[in-house]
Specification:
single chain, mainly alpha
Length: about 250
């Protein structure tokens, strides 16, 4: 029953995150008006707004006008529910797990907003930093390590930003990426920041080179870095300690 409750909560939060992803970059209210079809503007009925299930029943189309519903909506809902379930299995049903769920929700919203609009909203990252630091009261890493992670992570990316501006004449990343890595440090500490940056750079490089090879991306063209940092942060959250331990053993 607890597992079912966590999955259900993840689906509901995922549905709300879809609202955040769509409305926050447009500076629209997250509360009003009710969710509606982007094509015909017809309000979505409650029974047509059940996460994932309604999408399957309606076969991915609006009931009123038949306009296709983006696959992103059930994807965000299913991804959030899966990550919530993984967090419950990994960390148990504790107060600390509640802070983890907040962190996961922020990462999912940030990744998809950056993917769509190439921005990382300060409205998510800046309030999340003090919340992440306070989470050190109920779980590891401790508060000091989280503060060090937030400061050093953002400081490192700031140096990379300055280097890119000086050498290439353009910014390699934006202010939003700095705030995102500070958020990661506040929740995961400096070790989590190291894993996040390494995995983010590695996965971003692989995807970028693949897109260039396929002719979908030019060499000087940017791709959003936020989704790759979010991916690195999720890996660091669940398996960061194991990766750091494996690396230290490898060095020895």
């Amino acid at each position: 029953m607890l597992i079912a409750w966590v999955v259900g909560l993840g689906l509901i939060i995922g549905s709300f995150l879809n609202v955040v992803i769509h409305r926050l970059p447009r500076e629209e209210s997250l509360v009003t008006p009710r969710s509606r079809c982007p094509a015909c503007r017809t309000p979505i009925r409650p029974w047509d707004n059940i996460p994932v299930l309604s999408f399957l029943i309606l076969r991915g189309r609006c009931r009123a006008c038949g306009h296709p519903i983006a696959w992103r909506y059930p994807l965000v809902e299913g991804l959030t529910a899966s990550l919530f379930l993984l967090a419950a299995v990994r960390f148990g049903f504790t107060l600390y797990t509640g802070t983890v769920l907040v962190f996961i929700s922020a990462l999912v919203a940030i990744a998809f907003i950056d993917l769509d609009h190439q921005i990382i909203p300060n409205a998510i990252t800046l309030p999340g930093i003090p919340l992440g630091l306070l989470a050190g009261i109920v779980g590891d890493p401790p508060l000091l390590e989280r503060a060090v992670g937030a400061l050093t992570g953002a400081g490192f990316l700031y140096l990379v930003l300055l280097y890119g501006s000086a050498v290439y004449g353009q910014d390699a990343m934006g202010e939003g990426d700095l705030n995102l890595i500070a958020l990661v440090g506040a929740f995961l500490g400096w070790k989590g920041v190291v894993v996040t940056i390494l995995l983010g750079c590695l996965s971003g490089s692989v995807v970028g080179l693949a897109l260039i090879g396929l002719g979908r991306l030019r060499r000087r063209e940017h791709i959003p870095f936020g989704p790759f940092l979010a991916f690195g942060a999720l890996v660091a959250l669940f398996w960061g300690d194991a990766l750091v331990g494996w690396y230290l053993r490898f060095l020895r």
